[in-house]
Amino acid sequence: MADQKGKTILTGVKPTGAPHIGNYVGAIRPALRLAASHEKSYLFIADYHALNAVYDPKALKEDSYQVAACWLALGLDPAKTILYRQSDIPEIPELVTILSAVTPKGLMDRSHAYKAAKDRNAEENRDPDADVNMGLYTYPLLMAADILIANTDIVPVGKDQVQHIEFARDMAGYFNGAFKKNVLKLPEYQLEAGGAVLPGIDGRKMSKSYGNHIPVFIDSAARRKLIMKTVTDSKLPAEPKNPDENVIFQIYAHVGTPEEVQAMREAFEKGGMGYGDAKQKLFEALERNFEQPTAKYNELMTDRKKLDDILEEGAARARKVTRQTLSNVREAIGLRRIPE
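The chain above was modelled as a monomer; its predicted structure follows.
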């Protein structure tokens, strides 16, 4: 991409509870590195988005705290990256209302999430809109508002989310065209390299739904117990093994140092490394990576006031931009600016 110095980057995270190491390697670590490489970065907890499926107030609140504690424990610097709850930015829902007035219904009809829901209903011979709430249907409007309100330049996304950025650009264009003013910035997407997909301890894709995951934040004894349960074949230590078909190595490749990973690969290929030794090395690498973050996470989760303070300070900093953006939007459509 072109020079990104001075560009604003924005990432949203749904509150889905504490992560496993597959989440960390595939999404969290790359996002942290990207945020650290930009002068201006935002990370928000998408609690309004979660309302489409979560109707448990206690769970939503707890999951939001877990997301904040997770990212902070893993290295997010709130002095550099502005961290806030989506629900603490009242300018977002107002911009949704305004964007809905210039966005054609057909755009929502083309949303991947909406089309997928209709396809599932068709397969089950149900009404096309069964179990489709307006939150899901207008999801792209809320996501566009998240992006546009922060005057965002770049949104890192996977291939399945490119449509959301294209829709945000469309909506900004509809607004600017309707009111003959270039008020809303058209964001760009940055396609993330395919995040690594780690196997779980049973060899399948690591997933909470399979119960085969290794939590990031877990005590040493429990972490070791999980590692020792990792599936292996019956080959003896002296026998050569294919590291690329080995669950232990596939995880180790993402948490060990390059030198350690190369050494394990050679030991497996030449023969001479038993699975017990390999599991111990994996455990040690995970301890090195996550022992201190786990302690910090636990500390933050017992100090909700500190988390609230960080999130509220982040929201106050974000609102310096979001209030300005919304004032410009309101002025363009003939409404008064937000009072100072």
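The first strand starts at residue 8 and ends at 13.
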